[in-house]
Write a structure and sequence with these properties.
It contains 14 helices and five strands. With 348 residues, it is mainly alpha-helical. The chain has a three-stranded antiparallel β-sheet with strand order 3-4-5, with no helix packed on it. Strands 1-2 form a two-stranded antiparallel ribbon. Helix 1 runs parallel beside helix 3 and helix 3 crosses helix 6. The relative contact order is 0.08.
Length: 348
């Protein structure tokens, strides 16, 4: 079953106004994003069905009128409920199993965000008279600082990608050799352009132009952007494309394909990156995920003195505050450098 079919199957049991909201508000976003927010809204409706509208038998029976009756107290008790609650799932053989779900602060905020988005949609479309969710305070999230790859770690990672023959043997070596040029093109494109993994795996052959040294990606929200390639990225992608076009197993127009000829998934890229990282001793879980390469790209630009507004443009950030996170990470390294060279006794 395709992701779109799964989304339609999920929305079939949701109220019409939720179907309309997800179709309009998240048009252009990934199917996973739509399903994720749909699941968050479902949790909210199940809570209301259990504690406020007990007369409702099925979730699809909710109407905007019911949302009109939701109060600030309902939302505050829902926030408390999200810390730990019980759900019931039905297995393939028809058995009902109860599960305990828990959410940290980030998880609670995400679910509240989905609910707020729904109420905002209903209010803007005159389906409710007020948006009570505007009065809800989100919990403050204390985020862990995630570091980019160091120069030495980047060198190690590129070495195993380019020279895996020195690291692998047997079956691992055979698999590496079969995908070598693809992986070189994929990960140099990642490190050299800072694109999101979802953007890279969704590039089609028609999106690449070696005349303009660029390729087109679809950013979050559905906007397209032309990404210009550094020389090394362009050279490696050209070598891979010559190999890719001759691949008789290719089943679609994707640039980056799997061994079976299908478009690579983001999960496959993450699994591959983790293997390469662990091979050369990079074990920090934050650095073995694809976003670490995007983070490294941003921090390298800032270190090279590129204006933060340009960094935001290259990263596809609509909100420059998101880009400031990378500046903070870069500033940490600069503080370390300053303090390392600091002389307590002063200059003599």
């Amino acid at each position: 079953m395709s992701k779109y079919s799964k989304l339609m199957q999920f929305l079939k049991n949701m109220p019409d106004f939720v179907f309309d909201y997800l179709a309009v508000a998240y048009n252009g976003d990934s199917i996973n994003t739509q399903i994720g927010y749909g699941m968050d809204i479902k949790v909210f409706l199940e809570y209301l069905k259990k504690y406020k509208f007990r007369e409702i038998e099925n979730i699809e029976d909710f109407t905007p009128g019911h949302m009109e009756e939701v109060t600030l107290r309902d939302l505050n008790t829902f926030t408390a409920y999200l810390r730990e609650y019980e759900t019931e799932i039905t297995t393939l053989d028809g058995k009902k199993i109860k599960r305990i779900r828990k959410n940290d602060t980030l998880g609670i905020n995400r679910k509240l965000s989905g609910v707020r988005g729904l109420f905002s949609y209903l209010y803007k479309n005159d389906l409710i008279s007020q948006n009570v969710t505007d009065k809800v305070d989100f919990k403050k999230v204390h985020q862990k600082m995630k570091r980019p790859l160091t120069t030495q770690e980047t060198i190690k990672l590129l070495d195993v990608i380019y020279n895996g023959e020195r690291y692998y043997e047997g079956r691992d070596l055979a698999e590496y050799e079969n995908r070598k040029q693809r992986d070189i093109a994929l990960f140099t494109a990642y490190l050299g352009t800072g694109c999101r993994v979802s953007e890279l795996v969704n590039i089609d052959i028609k999106d690449v132009s070696f005349e303009t040294s660029s390729f087109i990606v679809k950013r979050k929200g559905g906007d397209e952007q032309e990404i210009f390639m550094p020389v090394q990225v362009e050279n490696e992608l050209l070598l891979y494309m010559e190999e890719r076009i001759k691949n008789e197993n290719a089943k679609d127009d994707a640039v980056f394909i799997s061994r079976l000829g299908k478009r690579m998934s983001a999960q496959a890229v993450e699994k591959l990156l983790k293997k390469y990282c662990l091979t050369v001793g990079i074990t920090d879980s934050d650095k073995t995920r694809p976003h670490a390469l995007r983070r490294t790209f941003a921090c390298n630009l800032i270190a090279d003195g590129v204006d933060i507004k340009m960094v935001a443009e290259l990263m596809g950030h609509k909100n420059i505050e998101v880009t400031h996170k990378y500046y903070t990470q870069y500033a940490t390294e600069k503080r370390k450098e300053v303090m390392h060279n600091f002389n307590i006794q002063g200059s003599r």
